[in-house]
Amino acid sequence: MSRLSVNIAGVEWKNPVTVASGTFGSGAEYSEFVDLSRLGAVTTKGVANVPWPGNPTPRVAEVYGGMLNAVGLQNPGIDLFLERDVPFLKQFDTRIIVNVCGHEKKEYAAVAERLSDAPVDMLEVNISCPNVTEGGIAFGTDPRSAEEITREVKRYAKQPVIMKLSPNVTDITEIARAVESGGADAVSLINTITGMKIDVESRRFVLANKTGGMSGPSIHPVAVRMVYQCAQVLRVPIIGMGGIMTAEDAIELMLAGAAAVSVGTANFVNPRASLEIVEGIEAYLKRHGISDVKELVGAVRE
């Protein structure tokens, strides 16, 4: 029997598979399809210090090789999350990763402080949010802002902090180095790629927000490249994501340097995708005579 467990920033997962924030709610709606206890971790939808209404509709559009979404991080806020979602997830034998969002440093800090004594295992910080104090530029597209927000969250967080990196930058390694300098315990990448869709008959934007985040299999090669680049410069572990539809996609990201993977858009197509990917990784290890999944990490041959 091959060993599937991984250690991410001091937290032991039973296997290297979690789910991407925003694609799995906080687990309740998927629990009738997937035994959450069989996942390495469940990553929740983004949580802010107060409820966010999100963007106007329409918010979602299908595109070649994936989808666009401009949900706008709609969420019920930290109070309801702690009251409802954490107790639900604690029923299962899985790690709990809370995705944290905000519009300015003090909002991120407020959520991290509220979660500091909560029974959750890790925080994943979404730095693709617009920084209202810097004219709306996303925290994750500026190295200085990325380092500052990491340092601020680390001041309040008692759990290991994963910084989720945006691919909408010229050099992903510059941002990765910045968050590591700020004290990040791990990074996750990639978040969605900014895209747009226009209806040629009505000549209108399909999304009310005009632009949205593109996810799905078409962005997978970009994710593989960025994970590989970051693995060359970072000491902290990487959680790879972006267009994972199969176990082979997940293994590809691990070979590029990811210590764990996160399944996103595939959940909308197949609610059991994350579990099937766990089983597929296990079958791959057996087929290749690999005793420990960690042997895959960064094992691409030149």
What does this structure look like?
Helix content is 29%, strand content 20%. The protein has a single domain (6-55, 69-193, 215-296), classed as Aldolase class I (TIM Barrel, Alpha-Beta Barrel), CATH 3.20.20. The model has no long low-confidence stretch (mean pLDDT 95). It is an alpha/beta fold and 302 residues long.
In summary, what is this structure?
The protein is α/β, with parallel strands linked by helices and 302 residues long. Helix content is 29%, strand content 20%.
What tags apply to this protein structure?
16 strands, TIM Barrel, alpha/beta, 8-stranded parallel sheet, 8 helices, 302 residues
The residue ranges in which pLDDT falls below 50 over 5 or more consecutive positions are none
Beta-strand portion reads 15-25%
Q: What's the structural domain tally?
A: 1
At CATH level 3, the topology is: TIM Barrel
**Using DSSP, what is the number of strands?**
16
- Residue share in helices? 25-40%
SSE topology:
Layout: E1 6-8, E2 11-13, E3 17-19, E4 41-43, E5 60-63, E6 66-69, H1 78-89, E7 95-100, H2 105-115, E8 122-126, H3 143-156, E9 161-164, H4 172-181, E10 186-189, E11 193-196, E12 198-199, E13 204-205, E14 211-215, H5 220-231, E15 238-241, H6 247-256, E16 260-263, H7 266-269, H8 273-287
Parallel strand pairs: 3-16, 4-7, 7-8, 8-9, 9-10, 10-15, 15-16
Antiparallel strand pairs: 1-2, 5-6, 6-14, 11-14, 12-13
Helix pairs in contact: 2-3, 3-4, 5-6, 6-8
